[in-house]
Amino acid sequence: MAAVLIVEDDQERQAVIAEVVGRLGHRVVLAGDGRAALTAAVAHRPDLIIADVDTPHLDSARMCRGLREHPTTADVPVVLITAHQSPGDTELPEAEAVAVVPTSFSAEELTETLRGCLEAPAEARGPDFTEALLRSLDAGVVACDLEGRLVVINQPVRDFFGDDSLGVPARDWAERFKLRRDDGSPLNPDDVALYRALRGEEVQHDVILAHDRQDRPRWFAVNARPVRDAAGQVLGAVAAVHDVTAEHHQRQYERCKSEVLKVLVHAPDTASAGAQVLRAMADGLGWPFLRLWLVDPVTDRLRPAATHLAHGSPPIELPSVLDRGEGMVGACWERGEPIWVPDLQAPDAPVLPRFVEAGHYRAALAVPVRSAEKVVGVLSCFILEHQDPDPALTLLLTGIAGHLGAYLERRRSEELSHQLAASVGEYIALVGHELRTPLTSIGTYTDLIAEEPDQTTVGEIRELLTVIERNNARLRSLVERLLDLSALETGQAELITAEVDLASVVAAAAAGFSVRPDLPERLTVPGDRDRLRQVAENLIGNAVKHSPEGGVVRVSLTADEDTAVLTVTDSGIGIPAGERDRLFARLYRASNARHSDIPGAGLGLALSRAIVELHGGSITLDENEGGGTVATVRLPRRPGTIGPARPGRPDETLGGNH
């Protein structure tokens, strides 16, 4: 007589099934839900389980998974009753049922099905059946005798550790397979779950880290318990091994994402945000080398913006710039989609030859960084072990890159907004000041002339007229430069572009000052000759004007294949803290310059920036280490990167002074 466990919460159907089982001459055990059934089966192993698919608390699929994972009930056959499958359908892979019966069964159908399950030939439950059962389990199963010798090891375990793992005693597994704890620390041989179970311990969810034969990390949760005879004596131990790598990675990815978001919330500026994000990713994912590339708007190439190299990891020689489509990073920029390279040594790997030659890193990936719909950079990672493409990891990295792109865009918008808000009030005040001062002088001296007697000659009031003329010229110059700046900013003023020898332009601009520039013999860029000379004159003039008597002003011009760089360095009064960005606002003058009575209208830098940006370049001001200021202009050397313009002949001039 067999013991049959019936798992059914419908009382009427439960009674019918029990009646059929009883008529077949077998003992009935009842359970109202899946959780109670699992407990009853482990306590007293049944010969057959009949279960409704939709049981309370624990559905049949999870109940069957629990049965398969427990060594006592791993081979108990299960018959499922369901309303969701046709009578002829016997496929419920997740539950591994031996038969499926529809809820609309007849007594004859149920009797025939149960008779076939309960009266199977004896050979079906012999060694071949047990081996087939162990092989069919998704979970790994390992058992050892009292001496620690392995007597059972099913296929999932062999696939991971190798066929020769059967000959390794339980206590030697930690050293032989370099097992580690969840935190990465080495696992002590005495702490191997199967060996602990031999000592009588019940082990639940002991997480270990191991590497497969391709050196890929995998995490396993191990449940182990002693195997006892009827008298309770320990005969050996058995362990169920579950691959929990996906769950581990999910927790790891969530922590990493959380840390990155914290960085972006608290990062003080864009310069430090990239480095802090890479550090958070390296700590969260355990990756040794990461680099953030951003598109240089001057050269339209990728340049490194931040790099993280873990302590003790081999460095990588990377180029200073990358073109679209060049290597893995350039290809990611060009396609605008993530690129995985599971094996850097593969013949078709889209990486530069230097990575293959170095041989330190095994895998790499790159993810585009977007601002709105535009790719503004690429996040690249290099890994020491093989890494197959992982959809969850791709989603994480795409999200991090998206947050980083949004941060860069938000900070840029905030900076522009702050500049605009500050400049509106300043502009009104400064315009009022710059216009009011000469107008006051003109008005005052006009009143003085009007008060002179009629017989006063022109010669007697010539000095008063000179003051009026000087202030009138100042006003006219101010208005003309404001109109010029407005035309440049709105695109109404066109550049006359041609191939320009920037070295001769800077030399001509420096000729009007007592400086000796360090210039190459020739350096050509696409641009407007007169506008570029205007920039050079403004910067050199500012440097001389703000330097003390006898101060040193250095002018240099250098270049690489992409960019021409003009640098003007002075040893003058420098820039007050907090005023550097405001100096490019129209009519703004540094407070120390105003208080030192240094002449100027505060338009030179604003005009210079407008001109440089129309040429597709950039202009920055930095503090000189020895005191003073360093002005740096970067201009693209390749055509097709400048703003509103019309073509001109080489070195064609406007014929006027700007």
TrEMBL record:
Catalysis: reaction(s): ATP + protein L-histidine = ADP + protein N-phospho-L-histidine
CDD domains: HATPase (cd00075), HisKA (cd00082), PAS (cd00130)
All copies of domain Response regulatory, residue ranges: 3-118
The keyword Transferase is assigned to this record: yes
Entry keywords, A to Z: Kinase, Phosphoprotein, Transferase, Two-component regulatory system
Annotated segments matching region Disordered: 635-658
Residues of the Histidine kinase domain: 430-639
Top-level taxon of origin: Bacteria
Annotated compartments: Cell membrane
Domain PAC: residue ranges: 203-256
Pfam families: GAF_2, HATPase_c, HisKA, PAS_4, Response_reg
Protein name: histidine kinase
Organism: Actinoplanes hulinensis
Lineage of source species: Bacteria, Bacillati, Actinomycetota, Actinomycetes, Micromonosporales
